[in-house]
């Protein structure tokens, strides 16, 4: 797989997330800090950090599963 395929796969997987998780990830990918995301979504920075770690774990697992299936 090349980088372009990886990016498309990541975007596909992000689109499969629940709305709140998708919002967190999109804001994170756009370069917002956890504090900025927390302020935007009216949550605490700790809550955002915890949720981001969970979302990243989900995405890593899904990405490696899909990547492995394509090889």
Automatic annotation (TrEMBL):
Organism: Dyadobacter subterraneus
Gene3D superfamilies named among the record's database cross-references: Winged helix-like DNA-binding domain superfamily/Winged helix DNA-binding domain
SUPFAM superfamilies: Sigma3 and sigma4 domains of RNA polymerase sigma factors
Top-level division of the source organism's lineage: Bacteria
Domain HTH luxR-type: 31-58
Protein name, per record: Sigma-70 family RNA polymerase sigma factor
Family matches, as PROSITE patterns: HTH_LUXR_1 (PS00622)
